[in-house]
Design goal:
Organism: Rhodobacter capsulatus (strain ATCC BAA-309 / NBRC 16581 / SB1003)
Strand content: 15-25%
Number of helices: 5
CATH superfamily of the largest domain: Lrp/AsnC effector binding domain/regulation of amino acid metabolism (RAM) domain
Number of strands: 4
Distance between the termini: 15 Å
Protein name: Transcriptional regulator, AsnC/Lrp family
Shape: elongated
Oligomer: single chain
Keywords: DNA-binding, Transcription, Transcription regulation
Order of helices and strands: HHHEHEEHE
Helix content: 25-40%
CATH class of the largest domain: Alpha Beta
Strand order of the largest sheet: 2-3-1-4
Low-confidence stretches: none
GO molecular function: sequence-specific DNA binding
Structural class: alpha+beta
CATH topology of the largest domain: Alpha-Beta Plaits
CATH architecture of the largest domain: 2-Layer Sandwich
């Protein structure tokens, strides 16, 4: 169920998404409020689950992780045990940044960030050694055109 947010909540969330390292004073000034009401709203949104964990975004290329692959997976296995093993395998692999179960011809799509094609092959070999997969297609991203964590609130 969606949480009701007013305009002030949305302004606060926008500021936090832009730069969560801002002080409460900075956020309050930018949204036209004072520190205590902003702090109360942030606490309430955390309690409601609107605000999850706060983290730092790293530059993958600066860290040598230059290759981004989108991996399309089809499986002929749909039993609970297979799915449990598959999901555990994905969660244990730090290269997997995102994993989605899909409707349609493809069962899953993964976003995998690695150093290069050789590193992707090592990931692929490990994946298929742990779980049976019917078909895997890897698509190399040639250019990242847009990437954001900012939700349109």
């Amino acid at each position: 169920m969606a949480v009701r947010l007013d305009e002030m909540d949305r302004k606060i969330l926008f500021q936090m998404q832009e730069d969560a390292s801002q002080s409460l004073d900075e956020i309050a000034r930018k949204v036209g409020s004072s520190k205590t009401p902003v702090w109360n709203r942030i606490r309430k949104m955390k309690d409601l689950g609107v605000i999850g964990r706060q983290t730092v975004l790293l530059d993958a290329e600066a860290l040598g992780l230059e290759a981004c692959f989108f991996v399309l997976i089809r499986t002929s296995e749909h039993e609970a045990d297979w799915q449990r093993r598959f999901l555990a395998t994905l969660r244990a692999r730090p290269e997997v940044l995102e994993a989605h179960r899909l409707a349609g011809d493809i069962d899953y799509i993964l976003k995998v960030r690695v150093k290069n094609a050789r590193a992707y092959d090592l990931f692929y070999q490990a994946l298929i050694s742990e779980v049976k997969i019917y078909n895997v297609t890897a698509l190399l991203s040639m250019e990242e055109i847009k990437s954001t964590t900012i939700l349109p609130v």
